[in-house]
Amino acid sequence: MIFLVVTFVMQLVIRRYRPADKDTVLTLFSTGILEHIRPCFYNAMTSPLYLTITPTLCAVGYLLGSVFGAVLFPAAWVGLIYYCCHEVYASFVRVRLRTDMQDIPGNFLSRPDDCFWVAEAEVGARAQVVGMVAVVAKHSGTEKYGEMFRMIIFPQYRRMGLGFRLTQTAVDFCKERGFCKAVLETSSTQMAAVALYSKVGFNQIGNYYYQLLYQLKSILCAKLMLNCKSQPYL
């Protein structure tokens, strides 16, 4: 038996954002945020508390003498939880598309200490934006640091080292600008991202719970930091 292995060479360039990238970047942003709905919903429904609530509602409906209620009560509960998970991410996308993502040059490129990059892959003769990341300068007392935002890659281009290159580009920028540190926040549903940031040199410095609608669900978010003055250039 003969196996035919087809390979292709992908040329990759990380560069500053251009106005012509806007449509693809906004699509990438929306896709990257909304894909967290399902993991969030799964984590909610498989938590010990919700694994108890769902069959309890089923039993309550049955005890009330209605098979329909035994199905309706837990179904309504599951639907409500999915709505909460969907709305927290969908509302975030709606707000950002009307605010900072609506004017990327003005919000991420108008100051020398801010930057927005895209990763452009060239497969054959076609160039396409497949990833992005941004850094915004922040101040804490007399110290200046960089906060990473909008780290997103199209699914089909992941696990190719692109995430590492984008993150390292942002970290190197923070060092060049003389920032004392680089910080970012991510959620517990993004396990691959947490592993990537740890590989680059970020350490977790804290966490908090983000409450969803009516506190029916919370998302564990982690704060990570990299000391720019102690980490060498790669």
Structural class: alpha+beta
Q: What's the number of helices?
A: 7
Strand content: 25-35%
Q: Largest sheet, order of strands side by side?
A: 1-2-3-4-5-7-6
Instruction: Kindly state the number of beta strands.
Output: 7
Q: For this structure, what is the CATH homologous superfamily of the domain at 10-37 and 96-227?
A: Gcn5-related N-acetyltransferase (GNAT)
Per the principal axes of the C-alpha atoms, what is the gross shape?
elongated
Helix content: 40-55%
Kindly provide the radius of gyration, computed on alpha-carbon positions and rounded to a whole number of angstroms: 22 Å
Q: What are the segments in which pLDDT stays under 50 over at least 5 consecutive residues? A: 1-8
Query: In sequence order, what are the helices and strands, one letter per element?
Result: EHHHHHEEEHEHEE
Which CATH architecture of the domain at 10-37 and 96-227 is right? 3-Layer(aba) Sandwich
The biggest beta sheet reads: 7 strands, mixed
Distance between the termini: 44 Å
Please identify the top-level CATH class of the domain at 10-37 and 96-227.
Answer: Alpha Beta
Mean pLDDT: 82
CATH topology of the domain at 10-37 and 96-227, anyone?
Answer: Aminopeptidase
